[in-house]
Amino acid sequence: MDTSPTALFDSYEQDFNQLVDAVVDKLESNPGAADLEQRRSNLRRVEMELDEADEMVSQMDIETQGIPQAMRAAYHTRLRTAKAALATHKKALAAARAQVARADLLSPSGGGGAYAPSDDPYGGPTSDRARLLAGTTVLEEGAKRLQQSERLALETETQGADILLNLRTQREQIENSRNTLQRADLAIDRASGTLKKMVRRMYQQRAVTYSIIGVLFLLIVVIVWEKLS
Hints:
By secondary structure, this protein is mainly alpha-helical. Helices cover 84% and strands 0% of the residues. It has helices spanning 7-28, 36-63, 69-106, 125-228. Helix 1 runs antiparallel to helix 2 and helix 1 packs parallel to helix 3 (69-106). The longest helix has 104 residues, at 125-228. Keywords: Coiled coil, Membrane, Protein transport, Transmembrane, Transmembrane helix, Transport. GO terms for molecular function: SNAP receptor activity; SNARE binding.
C-alpha cells in the first residue's frame, strides 16, 4: 500500500477522471429527440456522477493540506484544473437539461399539441408547463447551492476549529516559554547575588590580610629599632 503523502490525492484524482470520462460519454450520447425518457435517465445519472465528482474534488482539496510545501504548488494546479473541469461539465449538464426541456415542450406528448409555444402568447398548458419546468430547475439549482454552502460552512468550521486548536497550542507553548524565562531570570538574579557576596567577602579578606601584614611590618620595624638603639 502506498503511504506517500500524495497517494490519497492521486487516488481521488484517478476516480475523478474516471467519473468525468463517464459524464462526457453520457453527455455526448444523443438517443434522439423521440427517446426523451432515455435522455432524462442519462442526465439523472450524469447529475449523480457529477455530485460524486464534486465530493472527490472536496477530498482532493482536503488532501492538499497534508502535502509537503515543496510539492503543494503542483497539486494546487491539478486541483484547480479538476475544479474547472467540474464547473464546465455542470454547465454542460444544465445546457443538456434545457435542450431536453425544449424538446419535451415541442413534442406532441409534451402538451404543445398542434401549435408551438410561440403560438400561445396569452398563456395556456404549454406556457404553464414551461413555467413549471423553469421553476423546478430553479429550485434544483437553489438546493444544490444550499448543499454547497452547507458543505463549505462545515469545511470552514472544521478549519476554524483546527486554527483555534493550533492557536491554543501555541499559546500554551508561549506561556511555558515565558515561565521558563522567568525561572531563568530568578536563577540569574540569585547567581548574581551570590557572586556579589563572594566578591565582597574577597575584598574583606584582602583588607584583613593587608592589615595583618601592615601590623607585622610595624612590629618588625619597632623591634629592629629597639635593638639598634
